[in-house]
Amino acid sequence: MLINLLYIVIAILLLCFIILFHELGHYIAGRLCGIGIVEFAIGFGPKIAHWERKGIQYSIRALPLGGFCQFVGEDEANAAPNAMNRQPVWKRLITVLAGPAMNLVLAFLAGIILYLGFAIHIYPQVDSLVADMPAAESQLEVGDVIIAANGTEIPFDDTGTETLRAIIQQSDSIELTVQRGSETLNVTVEPVVVENAVASGESVRQVGMTFHSGGYSLGESIAASGRLFAEVSTLMYDVLSDLIFRGEGADQVTGVVGTVAVANQMLQLDASMIPYFVVIISLNLGIINLLPLPALDGGRLVFLIVEAIRRKPVPPEKEGMVHGIGMLLLFGLFIVLTWHDIVTYVL
How much is the pTM? Predict the structure, then answer.
C-alpha cells in the first residue's frame, strides 16, 4: 500500500513538473521580451507561501497541479510600458509559443535520457551458451557474429536480432552463417521446444544462447529520441483527428486522475517509465496547448494572427472575455473527465 502511494506521489510530482516547465517557458520568454509579470505561481488555489522579488509575486499554492504565469495587461487594457497589451505582436507571439515549445523541448530531452540511460542494443552476436542446449552442442562459440540464417541476411543491429529470433521460432533446423574473426563458417542448429516460463503454458523454440548487448551512444540516443518524438506526435495527431472529425475515442480521453492512475501503473514496471512518462505527457501537453481553442495558447495565437492581419489589436477586454468563457468550459471538462476517471480507475 505504501509503495503504491509512493508511486502515486511520484506521478503527481512528475505531472506538476511538466506543467510547471510549460509555465516556466512563458515566464522566461516574457522576462526576455520585457513584459511585466504580476505573479508566477506553483500550483493553484489558496496560497501556502508567497514572496516578492523585483516587483514580481511568487507563490506556492495548495493544489500542486501545475501553475501559472500572470502578465501585466494580459487580458485587460493597461497603460504601463511593460504591459503585454502594449508589446509588439512578435514579442507576444514568442511569449505565448514559449510554453508549448518548452514542453516539446522537455519531451525531446526526456527521450534522450530514456535511451541513454535505459535502452540497450541487442546484437546478433553470441554472448553466452547454455550447457546441454543445441547451440552449445554445435560448433558455435562465444563471440561469433551471426550474419545469415537459412539464407536470410542478418544485419548487425536490433532488427537483425529480432529477425533471427523469429527464424528460430519458425524453424526445426537452422543453417547459420557466422563470422568468427576472419573466418566465415556454416553451423547447423536444431531448436528444441520448451515451455516459456514468462507465458505459462506456451511452448517456444530455443537454441540456448544469449546475444551481446550494449547501451546507446549520445548520438544514437538523440536520433532515437527524434524517432520517438515523431511517432508520439503522429499518434497524437491521429487521435485528435479521430476525436474532432469522427467523434471516435472520446471514452478513452482521461483527465488528471486518469493520467496519475496510468502513470502509477507505468512507474511500477521499471524506472525507465519515468522519462517515458515525461515524453508522452509533455508532448501531449505541448500539442494540445497549440490547439486554436479559447484559454489555450493556441487560442491566444489566433488573436495575435488576427491582429497581425488587421494591424489592429482585438480589445483586451473582449479577448479576456473569450478566454474567460473558454476557461469555464475547460473547468467543466475537467470536472467531467475527473468523474469519468474516478468511475474508471477508483470505483
Answer: 0.79
